[in-house]
Amino acid sequence: MLRLPRARRALLWSCSLSLLCHALPVGAQERTGEGAPAGPDSQGETLVTSSSVPKPLLPASRVGSEVTAEELSRRPARSTPEALLEEEGIFVQRTNHAGGHPIIRGLLGHQVLILVDGVRLNNAVTRAGPNQYLNTVDPFLVDRLEVVRGPSSVLYGSDALGGVVNVLTLTPRFASEGEKRFPASARFQAGSADLSLQGSLRLGVELPDTAALGVVTGRDFNDLRGGAAIGVQRYTGYSEYDAAVKVRQRLAPGAILLVQYQAARQSDAPRTDRSVPGDFRVFSLQERDFLHGQLTVSGAGPFHRLRVDASALRQGERTDRFRVSRDRIEREDSNVWTLGLRAEGERGFAWNGASLRVGADVFHDKVTGGATRGAILVPGDFSPRPELARYPGSPTSLAAGLFGLFQMDLGSNATGHVGARAQLNRTHLPEDDRLALQFPGSPVLAASTAQALGVAGELGLQQRVSEDLTLFTNLGTGFRAPNVDDYLRLGAEGPGYVLPSRELSPENSYTAEVGGRFQRGEVARVQAVYAYTFIDGLVTAVPGALNGETHTPDGLAYLARTNADNAQVHAVELSGQVRPVRSVTLLAQAAWVLSTQKRLDPLRPEAPAETEPYSKSPPLNGLVRATWEPVDFAFVEGVFQWAAKQDRLSAADREDIRICPESPGCEGTPGWAAVHLRAGASWRWLTATLELRNLTDASYRSHASGVDAPGRSVTLALEGRL
Q: How far, in whole angstroms, is CA 612 from its chain's centroid?
């Protein structure tokens, strides 16, 4: 294993990292994943087929979109988060080259839920800020991405306040289900911006009642070159290996069993914004292991369709901080094991097009890890430091919920839906002696169990005013149950020193959404949406005390987390698409968020609550895209992408070096514009795509990111199939 030696070389002379990459779909796939948004030409409702039973992905009035298999093949994305860069209503933040997190309607982190094939990727330690979990999903394994904008806790439970991103991976087909897609294929992708190489091999078996698919991928990313005024960005390269196998078996007519395993290994991914010569921080290892079984049955008792998912997910992380002047490596390890079980049944009724979805789910998380210290010059000799562990002992979390969603026609071209969920969350907090070890005389916190009840509801209506025009409105609530990170986080954070908190309640959101959709066949489609969200009981840090003292010996204020803040978010989303002639498609979209947060100043407990922008709120942004398809097997596409200046900053933003890098007069993130051009063609067994990014070599970064966007560069993707 080369992880520690490579990290040292990156520390001492900024060496780059290396590896290969993987494969992507061309063509449609049977959609057996957990439901989500409507496609662009669906009048708000998408029907997919699993075991020959149509299944509505979303109530007709809900707002969603998808990145299709065809779009993925045309956009040679370097990572799964970057596959969302041009998606409506999505703003992608990147702390480092190995990260990337979607911001939906101004919300991110543990307020946006990420799913893989309908199974939660969020876990008990998903933090408030952006995280790197989505980047552990192999983009060449992705068949499509579904996005739901707005609260989705009724179907998916905790964390789905801002929305849901569901990553649906490639699924093998039976021989009777259509054209062969996976007998054998290989994909190669290279990029000049980071001198990256990615390669993937895919092998499939398609029999009448058995289908299987295996994928192996490797990738190597070197340091990323930004625009003309930026140049090469040190501490950005990393390596990755991925593997996956998926098997489908027809057990009986209408009964299909799917079993899959996915593995991801990333190594030596620097924390770009926190790395300087002599003090280098790196994700030495990022791991994900995912075992998933799914049984789908048609005509099961009272249900027309029954689906049961069982899953086991392990997410591991090792972070190292190399402090050269002290000859010291400061290491933190954490592992989260998640076991999940979800059952969902759907029944249609003969009257008024009614349908009912009911189900239950339970997820259990166990967190392990620790902190150690060692010498750079004497590798492998690490001493445990339990007082510095991110989480003490082995905390666990259990979430169990019941949900239902009812839809029906209301006559006169109107449809409506109503849904509800109740969920119980129990978090076991082990005995915690970290304070006593660091500050002698401090109390040892006894083991305890925290309980929180989450409740969500949803009500929606869609009315077709004319053949082309549809209006819709939705009312919905969401919740986020406090997790292990909320209860047990200890250490310096922001302006103070955060103490563990034992008394927390769920965050709750309340959203009202109105919109309209005009669609005239394939010629024109326009959609406008306005949403208002109020979030109550935000978990925040307020002044606290330890042993009668309000500050640490180093002068940092003690802070304790509590449900003290609230926020308001206004979001406007506009999109339009026209086809003036059959071979040309023009698309434009824009998104705007105005957010405010009522926040207590943790350093001035006597001061009244302040009103400020919500942290990391994205600026006005959008794109214009023109696509020309002169023939069925080739295309040319141009993209103009832009974002306005973001100078509405919270106090936390001004202390965030990703936004205000040591600048006392910080004015926020400048606006930017970039132009991209791509073209592709398929001929017999070969598909080729060429992308020219940032043609003007503009120097820019997305708001709240720790790494600048690529400068003028070329990406070449080749896929060969047998």
A: 26
Number of Cβ atoms within 10 Å of the Cβ of 564: 17
Long-range pairs, 435-438, Cβ under 8 A, ≥24: 435/490, 435/499, 435/500, 435/546, 437/386, 437/387, 438/387
**Helix, strand, or coil (residue 608):** coil
Using CA atoms, how far apart are residues 17 and 515, in angstroms rounded to an integer? 47
**Cβ pair 549, 600 in contact under 8 A:** no
Condensed to tens digits (0 to 9), the pLDDT of residues 88-116 reads 999 999 999 999 999 999 999 999 999 99
CA atoms within 13 A on the CB side of 563: 15
Q: Two tokens at 409?
A: 């026609």
How many angstroms separate the first and last alpha carbons of the chain?
Answer: 35
Which residues 6+ apart lie within 8 Å of 483 measured at CB? 110, 123, 124, 125, 126, 397, 427
Question: Which among 281, 368, 396 is positioned nearest to 328, based on CA atoms?
Answer: 281
Mean pLDDT of 346-362: 93
Average pLDDT over residues 690-694: 98
Q: Got the DSSP string for 478-526?
A: EEE---HHHHH--EEETTEEEEP------EEEEEEEEEEEEEETTTEEE
Number of residues in the chain: 722
Instruction: Write the Ramachandran bin of 2: left for phi over 0, alpha for psi from -120 to 50, otherwise beta.
Output: alpha
* pLDDT single digits (tens) 255-312: 999 999 999 999 999 999 888 889 999 999 999 999 999 999 998 789 999 999 999 9
DSSP conformation class of 669 = B
Beta sheet of 112-116, edge-to-edge order: 63-67, 142-149, 163-169, 112-116, 119-120
> How many other CB atoms sit within 10 Å of the CB of residue 368?
14
CB 578 within 8 A of CB 624: no
Give yes or no for a contact between 558 and 542, defined as CB atoms under 8 angstroms apart: no
Which of 39-48, 147-156, 370-379, 712-721 bottoms out in mean pLDDT, i.e. has the lowest? Answer: 39-48
Rounded Cα distance between 555 and 545, Å, is: 13
